[in-house]
Write a structure and sequence with these properties.
The structure holds 2 protein chains of 2 kinds. Chain A is an alpha/beta fold. Chain A is built from 7 helices and 27 strands. Chain A folds into 3 domains: 191 residues, FAD/NAD(P)-binding domain, CATH 3.50.50; 133 residues, 3-Layer(bba) Sandwich (FAD/NAD(P)-binding domain), CATH 3.50.50; 86 residues, Immunoglobulin-like (Sandwich). In chain A, 48% of the residues are buried. Classes of the chains: A alpha/beta, B alpha+beta.
Chain lengths: 435, 496
């Protein structure tokens, strides 16, 4: 047995270096996470003249989840061309290198305090940093089978879509031969195609909602092109097998998403891919004391992307789960502008105007604004609607109206809000109206 | 000629491992035959991990006696084996008159059994002991505690192993023969058993049947047809550690005497999460660990009655365990532990129906087995027996100063593999190279807590798999999740 205990060095008898208090390293900006949000924020900050930036990245390489997204379709908005995930990331990585932005890889953040101290672990030891501004850019994680309480056996062969993607694309490991996919989230759709291209049989995708959760282009290119059926209003009600997955039971669900008895159908399969949504990864944000919005699962922010803790900012999937990485980059670039302003002024104006939405709208970001600067309001609808209007009201006054040919939960909607449009310091209501 | 062991223990659960550990104090050759790939993969690893005080069992029963003994002696065991253990105390809460009668009965029973410090307490006292627990009155048991059932069983097994006991995993007993012939060099006729497994035959003078759910089957192989094990499944949920601080001690309802278990309760774990469960459902198969929709709903409903903070969205994992009961569906309740050697089958000790409070009673049960052997032959203590065993060091629980020096000594402590539970590469490697030689993903999980957090391995599972393949030189298709045939992969995507 590896004797771990004996490896703890006894405190140095000579009383030298080891006992001295570790120093705190100061930076203007510390960015937690070297994925698309963190990289874009760093590069934009540099462009705006902020030079003392440190990115902390837990992986061996920056790039975040893009590293395993080897399919294309990234960058259509940001670069007006279709790139693969690694290509999209490479554009930012190269730029950050060219700008000599410091990025510490293989470095995990253990703790962030409200005083903006950041404690990291790496092979070099524990390090304490303190920053004038901390940018949260940790991204998100996947909801699991356990989070949605699918009954049945806990067997090998049940993977979340992202884990499956990591095994296949980063580790060159084949996860299954006959698969069923639960959830029509984008990564699940991408994996349906990926598994098919590598010779596996994907029997079907089941979605509990009456509408698809992935982007229409992914339904088309990943399912329809490969004749993989998508069953809406269906869910998995049993996972079967003793050791490796042997099959699943699928049931139709009613209007309340409850399984309808008598509709059960069995599918033999050795692999189940779960693609049932993403959750912003906010353990560190909570440690830092930022208030969390139960709707987004991300920090509550103002139009500067500043959280409830002054000097701590958040952007990208840690703030709200995005549909396209392009919007993550753009959001992080807007965040960089406000961080730069914060560093210059040492504080930002109070955001006293809260933004509330009706039940048709799942959430809005930001959750409150100052009313003194223009900003972009991101939101998602709960149900798909054709021809609709999104209306912003202060009292009874319509301050903004956006007409949409359609709105689906899979797509993030962005509406510009101009300070000039506001009529008071009252709260803003966001309402969805059918046309 | 194949080796003749002095003792072969069938089953590497908490009872088999406690027996092996206690036997390893003596000049005996010992082998443990375990059909699974690790210890505590069945009942021993699938329970509430509570160290019971002993008030639930009938006065005069073995269960009552051994449970109280096991409870009292556990501080020493935990210290010797270097495992986490907390004497939290426990509340059995009641709401109505029927409950009050039940609680009074439990207190009287506990007093007779010799459980120290039992108290009937009112609502105010409940609120001071456990502010987030609901109940109008309760039985408070100060001696009840919590432990980590995996780490306890692993510690027993490792300690047995380091004192000379041999563990054979993936060794399923398929038949047992008794020759009873006179062995050369001995003056008395000695019984001798030959145990057939899927990997060859073993010979031994003593057979100790600690096969849990299958102890009836092994007993029949040993000539004892009298017992039947009725599998009774219990489902559990594990709650996010965010809720952990709100539950300071296990909180139980008043047990229903006809049910197969103690009722759906809440238990803090030594790791900071909360368990809720178990249900009690008699099932046909001894290997059906599936959970069901009906019970899931029941757990949330019953749990929230005692612990209103419980919400479905705080669940991070479910699991089930199966009680090896000697009482069937119609009678319910508890039969006593069976621990016996019959004159017509000398040298065969059967331990049957070791359900709750088996975990608490494990060391006293093992001592009882030793006494039975000691009555037949002179047991000589080994001068070099070492009761102490060291746990893997847990980076997360160390102070920042200790963490700093750990990384300085071994940079692998600076690489956080599991984010949710803060498990380092050094700990994963230590688990992979554990003394028992276990090489499944679940084996790493139960030893380190990696993959047990709220993302359930979403971040770390691929990394741990990679480390396992690298350290054990495995091909992807050889990686197992937990049990035989639980293969995780089908080879490479592309051969390079």
């Amino acid at each position: 047995m590896k004797e771990i205990k004996s490896q703890i060095p006894s405190m140095n008898p000579m009383g030298s270096t080891m006992q001295t208090l570790p120093e705190t390293i100061l930076h203007d900006v510390i960015i937690i996470g070297g994925g698309p949000a963190g990289l874009a924020a760093a590069i934009e900050l540099k462009r705006l003249g902020v030079s003392d930036i440190l990115i902390l990245e837990r992986e061996k390489e920056p790039g975040g989840i893009l590293r395993q997204c080897i399919h294309d379709g990234f960058g259509l908005f940001r670069f007006k061309e279709s790139l693969s995930g690694p290509e999209y990331a490479a554009r930012f990585i190269e730029q950050s290198k060219a700008q000599e932005i410091e990025c510490l890889t293989n470095t995990s953040v253990l703790e962030i305090t409200p005083q903006k101290e950041v404690i990291t672990a790496s092979g070099n030891g524990l390090t304490t940093y303190r920053a004038k501004a901390v940018i949260l850019a940790m991204g998100c994680r996947e909801r699991t089978r356990e989070a949605i309480l699918i009954p049945g056996s806990r067997v090998a062969g049940v993977y979340t879509a992202g884990v499956a993607q990591s095994y296949m694309n980063l580790k060159n490991i084949m996860i299954g031969r006959t698969a069923v996919i639960l959830g029509s989230g984008d990564i699940g759709l991408i994996m349906a195609r990926r598994l098919t291209l590598e010779g596996a049989q994907v029997k079907a995708v089941f979605e509990i909602q009456p509408h698809a959760n992935g982007l229409p282009r992914n339904i088309e290119q990943c399912l329809n092109d490969f004749h993989i059926p998508l069953f809406l209003s269906h869910t998995i009600t049993n996972i079967k097998g003793h050791n490796r997955l042997e099959g699943v039971t699928v049931s139709q669900v009613d209007g309340n998403l409850r399984p309808v008895s008598g509709t059960e159908k069995d599918y033999a399969c050795d692999t189940l891919i779960i693609s049932v949504g993403l959750i912003p990864e906010n353990e560190l944000s909570e440690m830092a004391g930022t208030a969390i919005d139960p709707r987004t699962h991300g920090s509550i922010v103002d139009e500067f992307y500043q959280t409830s803790v002054k000097g701590i900012f958040a952007a990208g999937n840690v703030l709200q789960v995005h549909d396209l990485v392009d919007f993550v980059s753009l959001e992080a670039e807007r965040l960089a502008a406000s961080v730069s302003l914060y560093l210059e002024k040492t504080s930002l104006p109070e955001a006293g105007i809260s933004i509330e939405s009706d039940l048709n709208i799942a959430f809005t970001v930001p959750q409150h604004i100052t009313g003194r600067s223009d900003c972009i309001l991101s939101l998602r609808v709960r149900e798909p609607v054709k021809k609709c209007k999104i209306i912003l009201l202060q009292g009874d006054t319509v301050i903004r109206e956006a007409r949409l040919p359609k709105a689906i939960p899979a797509e993030m909607i962005q509406i510009p809000v101009c300070a000039a449009d506001l009529v008071s310091l009252e709260k803003i209501k966001v309402v969805l109206e059918h046309e | 000629m194949t080796q003749i062991y002095d003792c072969i223990v069938i089953g590497g659960g908490v009872i088999g491992s406690a027996v092996a550990r206690e036997l390893s104090r003596y000049e005996l050759t010992i082998a443990v035959l375990e059909k699974e790939l690790d210890v505590c993969t069945e009942t021993s690893g699938r329970n509430s991990a509570v160290l019971h005080a002993g008030f639930n069992n009938k006065p005069g029963s073995l269960m009552a006696k051994l449970c109280v003994e096991g409870n009292t002696g556990f501080d020493r065991t935990a210290h010797e084996l270097d495992i986490p253990f907390k004497r939290t105390g426990k509340l059995v809460v009641g709401f109505d008159n029927e409950d009050l009668a039940g609680i009074t009965f439990l207190k009287d029973q506990g007093d007779q059994n010799g459980c120290p410090g039992l108290e009937l307490v009112d609502r105010d006292r409940i609120k001071s002991l456990a502010p987030n627990i609901e109940g109008n009155f309760a039985l408070y048991s100060p001696m009840t505690g919590i432990l980590n059932t995996f780490l306890y069983t692993i510690a027993l097994a490792e300690n047995a192993h380091q004192n000379g006991a041999a563990y054979f995993f993936d060794h399923e007993v398929t038949d047992i023969f008794r020759s009873g012939r006179n062995l050369s060099g001995r003056s008395e006729p000695e019984p001798e058993y030959e145990i057939q497994t899927n990997h060859g035959r073993f010979r031994t003078r003593w057979v100790i049947n600690c096969a849990g759910l299958y102890s009836d089957k092994i007993a029949r192989m040993l000539g004892n047809q009298d017992y039947t094990i009725y599998p009774c499944r219990g489902e559990y949920f594990i709650l996010d550690r965010k809720l952990g601080p709100y539950l300071t001690m296990p909180a139980y309802p008043v047990p229903n005497a006809k049910a197969g278990g103690l009722g759906i309760h809440l238990t803090p774990t030594v790791d900071g999460t909360i368990l809720i469960g178990p249900s009690a459902e008699y099932i046909d198969e001894k290997d059906d660990y599936a959970s069901t929709q009906e019970v899931s709903n029941l757990l949330i409903k019953d749990g929230a009655r005692i612990f209103p903070r419980l919400q479905a969205n705080s669940i991070i994992r479910s699991y089930t365990g199966i009680r090896p009961k000697l009482t069937g569906k119609n009678s319910g309740g508890y039969a006593d532990f069976v621990i016996e050697e019959r004159d017509i089958f000398p040298g065969a000790i059967n331990l049957i129906g070791i359900e709750s409070p088996g975990l608490t009673s494990s060391i006293p049960i093992a001592r009882l087995v030793i006494n039975m052997i000691g009555q037949k032959e002179n047991l000589r203590e080994k001068p070099d027996f070492d009761p102490h065993r060291h746990s893997l060091l847990c980076f997360r629980d160390q102070s920042r100063d200790v963490q700093r020096s750990l990384i300085q000594a071994d940079p692998d402590y600076g690489e956080i593999i599991c984010r949710c539970e803060t498990v380092t590469r050094a700990e994963i490697l230590a688990a992979i190279h554990n003394p028992l030689g276990v090489a499944t993903l679940a084996g790493i999980k139960v030893r380190t807590r990696a993959m047990m957090g709220r993302c359930q391995g979403g971040y770390c599972q691929t990394r741990i798999t990679e480390l396992l393949m690298q350290e054990k030189n495995l091909k992807p298709q050889e990686v197992l999740y937990a049990r035989k045939s639980s293969n995780m992969f089908f080879g490479r995507v592309r051969e390079i």
